[in-house]
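name: query_chain
kind: protein
chains: 1
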Amino acid sequence: MDERRKGRGGFVIITPPDRHGERSAIVADGVQPKSVVEHFRPDLATYIGQYELLWSAAPMASYPELFRGRKVIHFIDNSGACAALIKGYASAIDCGLIVNAYHAMGISLGCNVYIAHVRSKRNIADPP
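structure:
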């Protein structure tokens, strides 16, 4: 795979306290599979926006039962990906498809999602 297209990412899900006051956290990280990355536009110098959007959609896709019918606060440190998710639109087709999938999952799970930008130094999902 083209070195520009290799990317690592991750997410952290923190659940609200249960009836006993216990919280839980799920931490995930990994490398984007070639089968997904090969659908990115081939003409870019970097693919950080696409990666940020993929890892934004990954929690709902991976753990839908944690999101069903919930209020969700989604923190993201990439301003371009954050803006695309808030607008629900991205002009680049590869990014737009991911944004559409993100919102389709949220709607199908009955989530009420609030998306907020966080500075990279404060992003707990970056270390994984």
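note: The chain has one domain: 3-122.
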